[in-house]
Amino acid sequence: MKAIALQQYGSADDLALVEVSDPKVAPGEVLIRVRAAGVNPVDWKVAAGALDPIMEADFPLIPGWDVAGVVEAVGLDTTEYEVGDEVYGYARKDWAKNGTYAELVSASVRMVAPKPASLSWEEAAGVPLAGLTAHQALKRVGVGAGDTVLVHAAAGGVGAFCVQIAVAKGARVIGTASERNHDFLRSLGAEPVVYGEGLVDRVRDLAPGGVDAVLDFVGGGVAELSLPLVGAPDRVASIADAGILAHGGHYVWVRPDSAGLVDLARLADDGKLSVHVERAFPLSEAADAWRLSQTGRTRGKIVLTV
To answer: Where is the Enoyl reductase (ER) domain (predicted)?
Structure first.
């Protein structure tokens, strides 16, 4: 099969389209014919060796954890899916090796779910990692109906999902973003505020009594900065700043979760979760997709089409 691979830790410049062996399919797994693969910052961070202290890597390394595609084959004792089923998933294994930037990828059934019928392949591929991150972060801080939630980097890949999921739960959402993204946030149901100096005062103007929960998807100390706005530190969660643990908050590292993917698909098919695809690149242009991702200025998701 064709795949994008690295021969050693490196950067976008080291990505190459190569021929590799088809992946093996273990019991309890499905083999997916990839139609689209999501691009996430963690992909190029893995490639640069940033996760080497906590994750084994084997080369040639095919990046990518997000996938949408069609079941090509099933492993022994895999009864949940049949050949031809349309699925999507967060195919993060315990080591970096056979990722989703390929024509085929194998994945455990615990990593996948039926593809949302209302979403295109590209849209579906943009959901799993970012959508599950938002889903699990909101659950960690107990967001529910009537809560007022502050979401940092609300227009980004994870933030946009967080806004929509929180609104679907009946929460009021205040989201930080640059002014060019304020109309986008309003379209998702959030009240936008500009980030930067004076942020706490601007949030208090909108919510004089403070907020019930804070979700940080950008880092840079904003989680700690937001602590005076929230009544209890255990209602603050960050995916970018482990330092919040020292203040009693949560550091969230997303896990594969089939049930969570089912929830996200239901929201999408009920019209409560949309996916903004900033740009779709062909697989052969994965390097350009990474360069765009590395600008940190994209709205929504970047995907590869296979």
So the answer is: 10-304
